[in-house]
């Protein structure tokens, strides 16, 4: 139930990568929960595949060997630490707390469902003293309990717990439990629902307490920089070395923008082509996207110069700093660090466009009327526009973008979890029959992936801080997590 925060030593690299693995799972739960019915086989298969890869937990019923014991200890340590780190990252706003609670509750439920044989042991370990109904009382009420809980096989010997009905509201709501004198008679098989509700209530209270205690760690720049990064983190390929075989030339951009650009980049491209000017936020977002597509620095410099100089002379352009910005983003100026293209979360949660700007995510930052007009201009059918607007109203921006992909590519299912504009571009290119390579790592697109909705696994993860030395977790961090 995550009641005691972890203590010990951890490097900043492990701090970040551990939290990022759990965050990937929570996002998979959220995205697949919208895409599929949560009780469906497709949903269960997609989410459980992520859990088993990134955050497995071996059951205690396995034969105890030295290797099993060591592996279980490591798995539980990672699970414990990652949960509390994300508490710190997602406790700061009501919206973030609600999202984190919902996803963690679902992760908790899935694990309990997967290891039902350990529920009794879980109760003992967490000091949850549910009153077990005596055999005589079960015998007296057995048929009522079986009928209410839909247990039809008389061969099963049922173990029943007596629980205050207010702790079994989910079961009461669906009429899956027998209630008498304020007490719910819950079969052992239905305890998962009770425990999940208790877990969410406890976590919700803990997050509010955590938010109040967060100032205790606000002076630690290493920790705060990582926590800030986690809320917008993208953990797939960084697309810094993406190359399309045969290259994409500047001359091809008008055509490619209509077939393979995600809406955020298509919008910027159209504004740039029509007005021959885009502001700083759009320049950053678009330049890095073009870099991720495989355009060289000289290609981008030439493209920017040609467009801007349709509205200003060459001398004014030279003094504007636009050319310097391109060289800087390609790592040729300033600190000479190679900048990576923005992922969806960074674009969605970043500062929105002001008047005259065109950066950001259209699904997040455009009002419904302007978004509808834009989709109409892009010849999206009205039925699909209504569906997209419905997803936007529910704040499911990435799912809305996936729906746009499905409509524009005549696909019933995108077949991948959308997390990056360059990922969209590459998936589109493959869907249109173009071969794709991604840097040294290679990009596993949905066309070749065997698991629907899986995300590319990053080969290496580095925290957004320069040092990664082992240091004890301070008492202030532990206190904030409680």
What does the secondary structure layout of this molecule look like, with pairings?
Blueprint: E1 9-11, H1 12-35, H2 41-54, H3 66-89, H4 94-114, H5 119-125, E2 131-132, H6 135-149, E3 160-164, H7 169-173, E4 178-180, E5 183-187, H8 191-213, H9 221-230, E6 242-244, H10 253-260, H11 263-275, H12 280-293, H13 297-308, H14 314-320, H15 322-329, H16 344-349, H17 362-365, H18 368-377, H19 382-393, H20 397-408, H21 421-431, E7 436-438, E8 470-472, H22 475-481
Antiparallel strand pairs: 1-8, 2-3, 3-5, 4-5, 6-7
Helix pairs in contact: 1-2, 1-3, 1-4, 1-9, 3-9, 4-8, 12-15, 13-15, 18-19, 19-20
How would you characterize the overall build of this protein?
This protein has 22 helices and eight strands. The strands form three sheets. The protein has a four-stranded antiparallel sheet with strand order 2-3-5-4. The chain has helices at residues 12-35, 41-54, 66-89, 94-114, 119-125, 135-149, 169-173, 191-213, 221-230, 253-260, 263-275, 280-293, 297-308, 314-320, 322-329, 344-349, 362-365, 368-377, 382-393, 397-408, 421-431, 475-481; strands spanning 9-11, 131-132, 160-164, 178-180, 183-187, 242-244, 436-438, 470-472. The protein is mostly helical. The radius of gyration is 26 Å and the shape is elongated. Mean pLDDT is 83; it is low at 438-442, 448-461 and 465-475. The longest helix has 24 residues, at 12-35. A hairpin with a 2-residue loop joins strand 4 and strand 5 (183-187). Helix 1 packs antiparallel against helix 2 (41-54).
């Amino acid at each position: 139930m995550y009641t005691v925060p972890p203590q010990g030593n951890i490097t900043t690299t492990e701090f970040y990568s551990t939290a990022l693995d759990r965050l990937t799972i929570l996002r998979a739960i959220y995205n697949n929960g919208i895409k599929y019915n949560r009780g469906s086989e497709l949903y269960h298969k997609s989410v459980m595949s992520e859990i088993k890869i990134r955050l497995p937990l071996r059951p205690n019923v396995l034969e105890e060997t030295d290797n099993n014991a060591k592996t279980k200890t490591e798995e539980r340590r990672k699970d414990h630490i990652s949960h509390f780190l994300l508490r710190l990252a997602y406790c700061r706003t009501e919206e973030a707390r609600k999202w984190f609670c919902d996803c963690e509750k679902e992760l908790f439920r899935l694990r309990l469902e997967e290891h039902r044989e350990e529920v009794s042991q879980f109760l003992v370990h967490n000091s949850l003293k549910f009153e077990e109904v005596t055999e005589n009382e079960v015998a007296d009420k057995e048929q009522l309990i079986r009928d209410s809980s839909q247990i039809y096989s008389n061969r099963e010997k049922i173990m029943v717990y007596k629980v205050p009905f207010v702790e079994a509201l989910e079961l009461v709501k669906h009429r899956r439990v027998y209630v008498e004198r304020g007490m719910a008679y819950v079969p052992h098989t239905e305890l998962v629902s009770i425990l999940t509700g208790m877990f969410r209530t406890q976590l919700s209270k803990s997050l509010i307490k955590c938010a109040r205690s967060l100032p205790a760690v606000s002076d630690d720049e290493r920790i705060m920089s990582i926590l800030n990064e986690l809320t917008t983190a993208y953990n797939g390929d960084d697309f810094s070395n993406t190359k399309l075989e045969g290259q994409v030339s500047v001359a091809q951009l008008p055509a490619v923008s209509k077939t393979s650009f995600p809406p955020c980049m298509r919008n910027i491209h159209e504004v740039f082509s029509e007005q021959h000017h885009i502001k700083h936020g759009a320049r950053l977002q678009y330049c890095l996207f073009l870099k991720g597509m495989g355009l060289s620095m000289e290609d981008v410099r030439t493209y920017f110069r040609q467009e801007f100089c349709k509205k200003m002379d060459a001398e004014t352009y030279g003094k504007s700093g636009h050319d310097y910005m391109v060289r800087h983003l390609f790592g040729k100026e300033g600190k000479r660090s190679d900048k990576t293209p923005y992922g969806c979360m960074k674009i969605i949660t970043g500062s929105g466009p002001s008047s005259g700007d065109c950066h950001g995510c259209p699904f997040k930052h455009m009002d419904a009327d302007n978004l509808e007009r834009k989709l109409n201009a892009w010849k999206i059918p009205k039925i699909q526009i209504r569906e997209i607007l419905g997803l936007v109203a529910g704040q499911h921006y990435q799912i809305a973008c996936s729906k746009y992909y499905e409509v524009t590519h005549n696909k019933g299912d995108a077949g991948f979890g959308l997390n990056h504009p360059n990922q969209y571009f590459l998936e589109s290119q493959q869907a249109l029959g173009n071969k794709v390579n991604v840097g040294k790592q290679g990009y596993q697109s949905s066309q070749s992936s065997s698991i629907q909705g899986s995300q590319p696994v990053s080969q290496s993860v580095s925290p957004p801080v320069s040092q990664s030395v082992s240091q004890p977790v301070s008492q202030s961090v532990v206190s904030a997590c409680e």
